[in-house]
């Protein structure tokens, strides 16, 4: 559970309520100076951003206070690779794409038989895409441009 707390030195007369907003959108009022988010409901789209707490009563609003919350998201494959079989023909293009989304940007590490990729294979980093504060990382395997058919054959 995440508890955002807002307090005032003088609660006013009549006593202040607290208005909560995120990125300018109203999130409701509370009598107490806190706003609770269940950890299981925490999301990048729903909770990441600038939160503002404003004490308020019938006389008017007090000085607001703000906090910027950054929500992280574990990496998730956009397309599962483990169920795919890729046959790379040495005379044709090798083209295998791995797309992963997360926050911060996930790292993609390609391996060949549990170790380093052979020199005849190159990883191309395509432009990362930010969508709703989540970052999609695309890494593609291709034949190295200077590799020969004989070198590819021995891989």
Automatic annotation (TrEMBL):
Its membrane topology: Single-pass type I membrane protein
Segments forming domain Ig-like: 1-70
Keywords, alphabetical: Disulfide bond, Glycoprotein, Immunoglobulin domain, Membrane
Gene Ontology cellular-component terms listed: cell-cell junction; plasma membrane
InterPro entries: Cell_adhesion_signaling, Ig-like_dom, Ig-like_dom_sf, Ig-like_fold
Transmembrane as UniProt keyword: no
Record's subcellular location: Membrane
Molecular function in Gene Ontology: cell adhesion molecule binding
Protein name, entry field: Ig-like domain-containing protein
The organism of origin for this protein: Paralvinella palmiformis
